[in-house]
Amino acid sequence: MISISNGKKIQREPYIGIKPGFMMWEDIKRVKINEIQQKEKDTPLDLLEELALTAPDSVSLAEALINPLKSHTIAEFKRKSPIDGEMAPNADAMEVVSQFLQSGACAISIATDGSFYGGNIDDLHLTKQIFREVPVIMREYIVDPYQIVEARALGSDAIILHGGLLTAEEVASFARLAHALEMEVVFESSNEKDLKDYHPDVDIIMVHHRYNHEDVATPSKILSYLSQLPADKVRVGGGGLKSYNQRKMLLDAGFDAVIIGTSLMKSKNHGDTLHSIIVG
């Protein structure tokens, strides 16, 4: 789907199509394609490519997550979510990220999607401008090469590819592009079906078991997927984590790291809540 020439110029090929079986993903893909078409009018791909290829060196997310001297914890900034609605609509990204880092997070995920997460690309860009040594993930519904180039142009160290949103072929080709731009790739899965779209070119695999209103994430549900995850990849668990014991359970069972977002953003003091989950 994507090819990169010796000069790292990015070329597009036609979409493979929307993955069947989950209407929500189809809706999301339609929204994102419309957004990208407008973005390209404002900021052409050629300009983004120049910015991406001259971006500062990236910081390894994988190394930070497995470092025994760090907390093995990704803190995620988002103002709302498709499941929980608005959580902190007026939150300032720089203020919250600063609290996360002071409270022990070893990596940060920034939701840049506006329609579903209330984010924007400035949140990510400013985070990397201020916290250059911290690995930062761009949480976005990625459906097009434009977004991957945009992520690197903004300074992102890693991107997330959703198994439920992308075909196996798209995961593979998007991962190759991200690596060419010196970013790491997180493959996110919410069920066994999504895991079939895993590709060995990704660096990190994340089980985030919370993608519909009826299903409530629990550590036991997240743990049920652990044996299916490749042992040679960094493995991250998440989805509804709220306590020290839940985080400890996942790490003790064999997950290399956890991701926590909703419980932090719903709390009145984001930093204190994260500190209590990490330290107890």
Structural description of this entry:
By secondary structure, this protein is of the alpha/beta class. The chain contains 12 helices and 12 strands. The protein has helices spanning 23-42, 45-53, 61-66, 93-102, 121-130, 145-153, 168-180, 192-195, 219-223, 244-253, 262-266, 270-279; strands at residues 2-4, 10-12, 73-77, 80-81, 85-86, 107-111, 136-139, 158-162, 184-189, 204-208, 234-238, 257-260. The strands form 3 sheets. Strands 3-6-7-8-9-10-11-12 form an 8-stranded parallel beta barrel, surrounded by 5 helices. Strand 7 (136-139), helix 6 and strand 8 (158-162) form a beta-alpha-beta unit. Helix 2 packs across helix 6 (145-153), helix 4 runs parallel beside helix 12 and helix 10 packs across helix 12. The protein starts with a strand and ends with a helix. Residues 1-8 and 13-23 have low confidence and may be disordered.
Mean pLDDT: 89
**Which structural class fits the helix and strand makeup?**
alpha/beta
Strand content: 15-25%
User: What share of residues is helical?
Assistant: 25-40%
Spatial ordering of strands, largest sheet: 3-6-7-8-9-10-11-12
List the helices and strands and how they pair.
Blueprint: E1 2-4, E2 10-12, H1 23-42, H2 45-53, H3 61-66, E3 73-77, E4 80-81, E5 85-86, H4 93-102, E6 107-111, H5 121-130, E7 136-139, H6 145-153, E8 158-162, H7 168-180, E9 184-189, H8 192-195, E10 204-208, H9 219-223, E11 234-238, H10 244-253, E12 257-260, H11 262-266, H12 270-279
Parallel strand pairs: 3-6, 3-12, 6-7, 7-8, 8-9, 9-10, 10-11, 11-12
Antiparallel strand pairs: 1-2, 4-5
